[in-house]
TrEMBL record:
CDD domains: CUB. This is Deleted in malignant brain tumors 1 protein. Residues 66-174, 328-436 form the CUB domain. The keyword Zinc does not apply.
């Protein structure tokens, strides 16, 4: 049948619908009853299909998909084995063995760069619904590791340099899992945009009980030469129930992959301000851009509150704005380092005005180094400037050029711009950054970064907490006029007459 328009899906009460194609022809479904659906459109008619199924606790996964769900006691994951994988991949796998006490991983074969490409494994703490900061690298030198959990979060990450070939990872379950009072509902998405409504009929019920932990993973399939993607995550609505005997609430935690090792903790719902009221139910209103994540890979963990309480998490809206190295601007967050690649070896347009927001959490100073450049020194330029938490930029932006390719800024957040004139169009640039010194004291402010350049409607809203700074950048890759409307702004004023402020540049 037609790859574009006709398809087969399989699902069960425990597993959401999985679309089967010629490149994604193998899937594992939990449950004794499986629904198989074939859908054809109204255009070209094709031929049918043959679908094989078997009952087996051993799982063999070998396909081209970057990430996914793997449910079984024992098995093998082969990803692009002996085949070159693309640059800048962040493939997220949720590996679950429901009836086991621990899982052993063994890397049987790999041909990826030891220096720069990695298999990383984390576990989830089911008592509070958070991702543990326990990242373990599975390498040739450390090829076998046992984890004392029934669910593992596995990430394969490649850098933007030399490409390698894939891997073969074997997993083996150990022991019998005692009744710990919770179970997992898992989902992986690889679409460029979508909406997650949980709980819903898709999950076999309309309620989320206290012992269900919902884990959502996202990672996109990429091709060689694809741009670096960032995802804009929007929250549509949701309610969180309070515990009967305390002010503890159900929670939704977000994480995004970092440039190198580990995960970066992003916003957690409900907010601290909302929980301080200790009301029975908290309704979190809709918010756009609750966070941006590089590489379009992220993790969301929802855990209801304790015994006898039902929580309703309704409609988590996910937007992937696909703003990569051919898009004008974006948000770049690095654990210790990172890089901005914009139209490197690609001709840029006339009259571009691009804004890139950079953050290196806990950095006291950041070093920026212009690695490659193809633009005119006379007329097109890259600037780097630092930002004060409340006020204007601390110093005039530094213009990066062939003769001034390195600069140091103070603070953990920087604003990078690229501007081209209306004459000759040449090629873009690669700008690397890393923390030069780390802060010795805790930061007084936390930053929320957001960027937009996608099609209308253009809108940004943010509910602010104490000592928070939101920086929103808007930039298009062509010259145009922009009208800005402020639809709502309610500043708070303290006893010293200090006020919240909104500055526009």
């Amino acid at each position: 049948f037609e790859k574009c328009c006709d398809y087969v899906t399989i699902s069960s009460a425990e597993t959401p619908a999985i679309k089967l194609t010629s490149t994604n022809g193998i899937a594992t479904v939990t449950g004794s009853i499986v629904n198989v659906t074939f859908v054809s459109d109204g255009s070209v008619m094709g031929s049918g299909f043959r679908l094989h199924f078997e009952n087996n606790t051993n799982v063999f996964v070998e396909d081209e998909n970057c990430g996914g769900l793997i449910i079984g006691e024992n098995g093998l994951l082969n990803y692009k084995l002996r085949t070159y994988y693309p640059n800048n991949e962040r493939c997220v796998y949720l590996l679950h063995s429901p009836n086991s006490r621990s899982i052993t991983l063994e890397l049987l074969e790999d041909e990826f760069e030891v220096c720069c490409d990695f298999l990383h494994v984390n576990t989830i703490d089911p008592t509070n619904g958070t991702l543990r900061n326990d990242t373990v690298a599975i390498t040739r030198a450390n090829n076998t590791r046992t984890f004392d959990e029934s669910l593992l979060v596995i990430v394969f990450r490649s850098d933007s340099g030399t490409r390698g070939k894939g891997f073969s990872l074997q997993f083996t379950s150990n022991g019998t899992n005692a009744n710990l009072g919770y179970n997992y509902k898992l989902r992986h998405v690889s679409d460029s945009y979508g909406t997650i409504d949980y709980p819903s009929a898709e999950w076999g019920d309309e309620e989320s009980t206290n012992n269900e932990i919902f884990v959502l993973a996202s990672s996109l399939n990429t091709r060689d030469g694809d741009a670096l993607f960032t995802s804009m995550i929007n929250w549509n609505s949701g309610t969180f129930q309070k515990s009967n005997d305390s002010c503890d609430y159900g929670s939704l935690s977000f994480y995004s992959t970092q440039y190198f090792k580990g995960w970066l903790e992003r916003p957690r719902l409900p907010s601290v301000n909302a929980t301080s009221t200790c009301s029975n139910v908290i309704h979190e209103p809709a918010r756009r851009n609750i966070f941006n994540t590089e590489f379009s890979s992220f993790l969301a963990i929802y855990k209801p509150i304790s015994v006898g309480v039902y929580a309703c998490l309704s409609c988590l809206l996910l937007h992937f704005c696909l703003q990569g190295n051919d898009k004008c601007g974006g948000v770049y967050v690095g654990n210790n380092s990172g890089e901005i690649i914009y139209k490197e070896n690609i001709r840029y347009d006339a009259n571009e005005q691009c804004v890139f927001l950079v953050q290196v959490p806990q950095a006291e100073t950041i070093v920026f180094s212009l690695q490659t450049r193809g633009f005119e020194d006379c007329c097109d330029y890259v600037t780097v400037g630092s930002l004060a938490a409340f006020g204007e930029t601390q110093s005039p932006p530094v213009i990066m050029s062939t003769t001034n390719s390195t600069t140091i800024i103070t603070g953990s957040v920087a604003i990078v711009t690229f501007t081209s004139d209306g004459s000759i169009q040449q090629f873009g640039f690669r700008l690397q950054f890393h923390a030069r010194t780390k802060a010795t004291t805790n930061f007084q402010y936390t930053y929320i970064l957001a960027h937009q350049n996608q099609p209308p409607p253009f809108e940004f809203s943010q509910q602010m907490g104490p000592n928070q700074v939101a920086i929103f950048a808007y930039a298009r890759s062509f010259k145009n006029n922009t009208q800005l409307n402020i639809t709502s702004f309610r500043p708070q004023i303290n006893a010293r007459c200090d006020s919240d402020s909104l500055s526009i540049y």
